Amino acid sequence: MIDIPAIYQGQMSSLKDIRVSPLSRAYTFSDSVYEVIPYFAGHPLCFSRHIERLASSLQLSHISVDMDVITSELKQLGDELGNQDGYIYFQVSRGVDEIRAHLYADDLEAERFGYAFQTSVSVEPISGMLCEDNRWAHCNIKSTSLLGNVLSMNQARQQGCNEVIMHRAGNMTEAGASNVFYLNHQGIVRTSALTENILPGITRAILLEALTKSNIEVEEGECDIQDFNDAPAIWLTSSTKGMLPLTSLIGTTYFFEKNNLDYLRIKNIFNDAVELHLLAAK
Ligand SMILES: Cc1ncc(COP(=O)(O)O)c(C=O)c1O
């Protein structure tokens, strides 16, 4: 097993040496939230936004924990990456029960766990499958309760796909582990508006803010899945994928026009915005 620097309850060690109780509420109930922060050459992309989203997920889940402690632990993990590309995974559970019980004790100590992993953002386009969004109603919380995502994505894998695009009653929500954008046939960039049905992605925000400064027309709102049939480009955004196009989408007639000039321009705008954010982090 490779040596991955990790932290548990403030104690730095190697991931392989961390032992947790089976009575961790993360284990018994998925009663936990998490964050993933990407690093480029050792610099975090939008560190404070990830902290803010984690604080929001914790607050919406009624888990109380000192954010200064978490920030310091995240920085310790970040230092472990040196000047490499990678990401930090960090998870906070409500705590460890004395015995499994839905109703939690009010004095539980939140359980903090994270690790730093060296890797590069994937650049190979992937294929997707359209499916119903059968997750719970609070997908704006970055909860580790991801059974809906896990089942759908693994069903898609049986069709040779790496991702799903989910919809509720014909309106696109998001992907299994990413937000979704597309160019419609009129050349307008469209993405789902922020509601409780999707995660407020940091990468999504980076792209939207950058596009606002361009003359490219953007609409956040309801996205009819019929639009995919004649969309020249559909792409995913996430901390570990950056901006990644879909080559095909099972359940639609979509195919990716990889030389589409609008798409290529949007990709450049995104890359420049990421560079600027990283410069600000130096
Ligand atoms: C369901 C879901 N939506 C969207 C995203 C993208 O969020 P971000 O850009 O902050 O990584 C993720 C990231 O893991 C996700 O799991």
Structural summary, described in words:
- The chain has an 8-stranded mixed beta sheet.
- It has 282 residues and is of the alpha+beta class.
- It is globular and about 55 Å long.
- Helix 5 packs across helix 6.
- The chain is built from 6 helices and 14 strands.
- The protein folds into 2 domains: 5-118, Aminotransferase class 4, branched-chain amino acid transferase, N-terminal domain (D-amino Acid Aminotransferase, Chain A, domain 1, 2-Layer Sandwich), CATH 3.30.470.10; 126-281, D-amino Acid Aminotransferase, Chain A, domain 2.
- The model has no long low-confidence stretch (mean pLDDT 97).
- Helix 4 (147-157) links the parallel strand 7 and strand 8.
- Pyridoxal-5'-phosphate binds at residues 36, 174, 177-179, 199, 201-204, 237-239.
Topology of helices and strands:
Layout: E1 5-8, E2 11-14, H1 25-29, E3 32-40, E4 43-44, H2 47-60, H3 67-80, E5 86-93, E6 111-118, E7 126-132, H4 147-157, E8 163-168, E9 171-175, E10 179-183, E11 189-192, H5 202-212, E12 218-221, E13 233-238, E14 242-250, H6 261-281
Parallel strand pairs: 7-8, 7-14, 11-12
Antiparallel strand pairs: 1-2, 1-6, 3-4, 3-5, 5-6, 8-9, 10-11, 10-13, 13-14
